[in-house]
Specification:
3 helical TM bundles of succinate and fumarate reductases; about 0% strand; mainly alpha; 4 helices; single chain
Length: about 130
């Protein structure tokens, strides 16, 4: 019997250790994740507003929770998710006009989205601490 053609060596598809995802794909995935995270963060904002409309004791409990190191970390993450998702939306709005669709330009815009979200988050928190005087 002869060898069947199915036993010949076939090329392997790129493995995850070989394939490097492009920045535009990574930012698209993160845009979707931050969109989901904003649902959770918006519930926290609603909780804070309900506590503010409730008794002083309730507000003090929620304010203490948001003021703890874990609460501030969550709020910092919420701020970053909000800024990243907003800039990702602007990026998609620019693409909807037909501009910036070239591979090199799209990659630059994706990196700018990441850098801009980090910078805006830090600026917001610095301004917040300066306004508090802390």
């Amino acid at each position: 019997m002869s060898k069947s053609p199915a036993t010949r060596a076939r090329p392997l598809s790129p493995h995850l250790t070989v394939y490097r995802p492009p920045i535009t794909m990574t930012m698209s995935i993160i845009h979707r994740i931050t969109g989901g995270a904003l649902y959770f963060g918006t519930l926290l904002v609603a909780l804070w507003l309900m506590a503010a409309a409730s008794t002083e004791a309730t507000f003090d409990i929620v304010n203490w929770a948001f003021g703890s190191w874990l609460g501030r970390l969550v709020l910092f993450g919420y701020t970053w998710a909000l800024m990243h998702h907003m800039l990702g939306g602007v990026r998609h709005l620019v693409w909807d006009t037909g501009a910036g669709l070239e591979k090199h330009t799209a990659s630059k815009i994706a990196w700018a989205t990441l850098a801009g979200s980090i910078a805006l988050t830090l600026l917001i928190w610095i301004a917040g601490y300066m306004a508090r005087g802390a």
